[in-house]
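STRUCTURE:
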């Protein structure tokens, strides 16, 4: 899944002096942010993101479980939109930022400055982070109109100077899609059917009408509780349109009400007081000369740019390691660059050097295990799957809420056709709980449930994947599996 951002950091970080400061790392409860902005700007940016996170959780009555270093959202704040596009995989024209959800740590890349003014910078970041949190709710699958409608509802959040947050402000960036006589308006019945929207007018209307319907159902007194009933009915397995008729009644009447609501162009909002939104501390530390020098390569590796010059990247990493042999980030970057280039022995050696510098780094232990796992899969001498599992177990002990070592512990059993143990299967499912944004991992967990004869445990994840608007072939496969299960047929 690729979700695009347009300048998420601009409101906080734009306007800084042209000269760039040294690189810093901001760590907060839910975010790890790398930026070469001033420490005070970076701290303020992290606090704003934390405040929005808290407001969403309060509004949705969501829990806030502990997260480890491995599953906080990593945000790279780069110089400008050109730097963003340099880190893109695939077409990047018109893209001002991006977000990639994955078990090894979800990543967002945003520019420090952008000249785009048609869309507020915070709006798009908040839209994508709303997806990030929505995907954390593994037990409540949603159809595509509500996935995007709710993200649009949250996208207009405003974090005010007193620490309070406004939610549900008008989606002015969708005004043309809703009000222009030339804009396509998706009929409500088509919207509620859950069928995929075609690119262009249908897709734009899905976002715009999805926001409008979500806003109306949230604030209209006569419709109170209906949206939750709709979600509950859908989660029980009713087709989207049937769930809509059960929860909302006459859909033609609902459409007339929604059109009148739009015509008034007066939309209420919800303000969550600052005292309800306590956030933890933000720790800002300088990276040092080695980390700053490694940051361009580290960003490329974390962004997983397609068609990278892997050998060249590995050579760059080796040069950095020779210059900064005492920097743990440099050594971790070297381990990843060597692994991507296919030199697993060199990757393991780099991981050993990182472990020597930071014995309590779960990331370093994971790279050690991944290098051994790759060597074992290729039947290279001196590496076994059992050895790899040992390193993943040690990484898990250091950071129990990190999904990555759990996932690789499982893979170290199924590698080479092996059968996973009950413990390994439990590790896979727990990894999927810890990183619900990674739909590839969710699919692996669902397929394991199907293999184990537990289709009802697989179904919620399959529905989430099937309804994802950016899921592509994976969503189509999940939809086929759901159809097969609902028809009472054995899953392929």
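SEQUENCE:
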């Amino acid at each position: 899944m690729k979700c695009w951002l347009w300048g998420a950091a601009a409101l906080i970080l734009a306007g800084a002096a042209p000269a760039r400061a040294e690189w810093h790392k901001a760590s907060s409860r839910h975010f790890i942010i790398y930026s070469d902005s001033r420490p005070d700007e970076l701290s303020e940016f992290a606090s704003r993101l934390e405040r929005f996170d808290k407001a969403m959780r309060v509004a949705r009555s969501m829990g806030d479980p502990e997260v480890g270093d491995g599953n906080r959202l990593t945000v790279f704040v780069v110089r400008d939109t050109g730097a963003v596009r340099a880190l893109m995989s695939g077409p990047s024209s018109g893209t001002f930022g991006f977000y990639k959800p994955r078990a090894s740590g979800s990543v967002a890349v945003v520019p420090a400055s952008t000249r785009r003014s048609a869309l507020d910078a915070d709006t798009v970041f908040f839209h994508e982070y709303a997806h990030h949190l929505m995907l954390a709710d593994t037990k409540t699958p949603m159809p595509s109109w509500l996935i995007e409608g709710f993200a649009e509802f949250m996208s207009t959040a405003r974090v005010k100077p007193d620490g309070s947050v406004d939610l549900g402000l008008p989606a002015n960036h969708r005004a043309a899609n809703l009000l222009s006589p030339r804009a396509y308006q998706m009929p409500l019945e088509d919207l509620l059917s859950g069928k995929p929207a075609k690119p262009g007018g249908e897709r734009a209307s899905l976002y715009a009408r999805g926001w409008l319907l979500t806003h109306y159902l949230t604030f209209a007194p006569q419709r109170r509780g209906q949206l939750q009933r709709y979600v509950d009915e859908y989660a029980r397995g009713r087709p989207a349109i049937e769930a809509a008729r059960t929860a909302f009644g006459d859909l033609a009447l609902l459409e007339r009400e929604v059109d009148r609501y739009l015509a008034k162009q007066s939309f209420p909002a919800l303000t969550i007081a600052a005292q309800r939104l306590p956030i933890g501390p933000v720790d800002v530390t300088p990276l040092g000369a080695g980390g700053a020098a490694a940051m361009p390569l580290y960003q490329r590796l974390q962004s997983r740019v397609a068609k990278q010059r892997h050998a060249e990247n590995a050579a760059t990493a080796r040069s950095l390691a020779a210059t900064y042999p005492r920097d743990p980030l440099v050594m971790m970057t070297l381990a990843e660059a060597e692994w991507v280039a296919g030199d697993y022995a060199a990757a393991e050696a780099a991981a050993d050097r990182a472990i020597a510098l930071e014995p309590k780094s779960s990331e370093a232990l994971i790279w050690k295990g991944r290098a051994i796992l790759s060597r074992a899969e290729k039947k290279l001498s001196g590496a076994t799957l059992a050895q790899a599992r040992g390193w993943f177990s040690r990484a898990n002990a250091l950071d129990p809420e990190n999904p990555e070592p759990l996932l690789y512990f499982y893979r170290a059993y199924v590698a080479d056709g092996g059968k996973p143990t009950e413990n390994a299967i439990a590790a896979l499912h727990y990894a999927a709980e810890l990183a619900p944004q990674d739909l590839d991992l969710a699919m692996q967990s669902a397929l394991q449930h199907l293999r184990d004869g537990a289709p009802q445990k697989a179904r919620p994840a399959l529905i989430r994947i099937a309804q994802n608007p950016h899921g592509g072939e994976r969503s189509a496969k999940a939809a086929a599996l759901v159809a097969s299960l609902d028809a009472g047929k054995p899953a392929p």
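REMARK: Residues 161 and 274 are 10 Å apart (CA to CA).
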